[in-house]
Write a structure and sequence with these properties.
It is a single chain. The protein is mainly α and about 120 residues long. It has two domains: about 5-55, no CATH class; about 65-110. The chain is built from seven helices and no strands. The longest helix is centred in the middle third of the chain and has 19 residues, at about 65-80. The radius of gyration is 24 Å and the shape is elongated.
Length: about 120
Amino acid sequence: MDTNHASHTNITNPTNITEDILKESTPEMLPEPYRKYAKAIGIINLYNFSKATKGEYIYIPKPDNLMRLLIKNRIIKEYSRGGITMERLAKKYNLSLLTVWRYCNGAKNGCTDSE
């Protein structure tokens, strides 16, 4: 009998082990700040995010900063489609006309990132 072959057939698939561990784990098993992240998005999502970012340092903006970036991109998209003035966009999003103008003018010049 080939003992080498027999030992390989008894090895559990590492992917299944990982899945089992993730499914059976709770945020309380992790130290802070990872516990806080796992409570917010779930352990499986935290693991997948960790795999995607490969341990690199990530800055996560505060909710109001994130929302500002999303609103800026939405204003640029709406304005570039046409049919709406900067004045209407300023009123719609409760922003100054100057802020909307900066967003839209920056987009024309290829600037769609944060201010």
